[in-house]
Amino acid sequence: PEDAGDRIHLTARVNYRKFAWWNTQWAFAGVRDPSRKPDVGRGYDDGKWLFTGDTSRVSGQIKAIPDIPTTVMAVARASLTVLPKDATLPAAKPLMDRSVRERWNDYGIGLLLQGDIKNAEATFLKVTGMDPGYADGWVNVARARIQEGNMAASEPVLRKALEIDPKLAKTHFFLGTALKALGQYDEALAHLRTASELYPRDRVVLNQLGRVLFLQRKFPEAVDAFKRVLAIDPEDLQAHYNLMLCAQGQGDAVSAARERALYTRFKADESSQAITGPYRQLHPEDNNERQQIHEHGPRMATDRSQPRTYTDRSQPRTYTDKHGPAKDRLSSTPGSQR
Predict the structure, then answer these.
(1) Is the residue at 332 inside a domain?
(2) ∠ CA 162-168-171 to the nearest 5 degrees?
(3) d(CA 136, CA 189)
């Protein structure tokens, strides 16, 4: 703005609230607006809700809508200099020193989580350039290379990280993972055991430890490692699967069948992608939310001008919503054939 002056002060704040405000209000006191008749169909409800319901019978000691606090997790402030319109912009270059290594490191982790492996590796290499004595930078370079499948290239940078900090558990874990893939089981086992001693309740480490023991055909020791995993999380899929393999290796058909049944029970329903596909195509905002890493941009428009299709998997039938009849597509929906 014209009246901004020569300085602009910015404040950024990260707030945390355990539950969404609307959902809390609705769960404790949500009632339909009696003045409006909702238009409800399968998968559609345009009704208006009021938060004036009776809370005398809600569970808990407080018979009211709870006032859940909003916690300020972090605050940052910055002050920017405003130049005159006709001023020449000063030369600017990225700040690349130890004072900002965590920012670059966090940026690289974000890229890695998004699957942008090459740019993540390049970012982590910048971190190592800013501070060669920062072990996490070298470990993260290796993480990117491991995710890409380049185990041989990850080994030297992990050994460099160990020289900097011999007690960093993540270095031992990732080096053990790389060495396992390279077939160097004895050394991999030594590093994984070191990581496990530092973090005895880490399921990922224990699963890798058990896997190496399985590959060495040390079935009793492998079983012990996987049972330690299940003591932490009884539904750990990887542990049940590998226990099944161990039982098969030992010729124990009964135990193998039991672990196979547990694995099948706890694993994700692979048909869910086909079942939810048509809904996600019609609701891009919901589909965006289900992505592990996603952005919140301008509200995505959903075309509600066309009749929507609902699928009842028990028998073909026609449903009616606000746009008129919608014919069931049971016979043409991918994954619907039995």
Answers:
(1) no
(2) 60
(3) 22
Is the separation of the CB atoms in 246 and 222 below 8 Å?
yes
Is 64 part of any domain? yes
Residue 165 and residue 113 in one domain: yes
Q: Nearest to residue 336, comparing CAs of 289, 275, 256?
A: 275
With a cut of 50, say whether residue 57 has pLDDT above it: yes
CATH code of residue 120 = 1.25.40.10
Residues whose CB falls within 8 Å of the CB of residue 238, separated by 6 or more in sequence, listed in order = 207, 229
Domain count along the chain: 2
Which pLDDT does position 298 carry in this prediction?
56
Same domain, 115 and 182: yes
| Beta-sheet pairing, 7-16 with 40-41 | unpaired
Residue with tokens 């290499």: 125
Predicted TM-score of the model (pTM): 0.63
Q: What is the pLDDT of residues 138-169, one digit of tens each?
A: 999 999 999 999 999 999 999 999 999 999 99
The sign of the torsion formed by the CA atoms of 125, 126, 131, 136 equals negative
Query: Which residue range is the domain that position 122 belongs to?
Result: 98-199
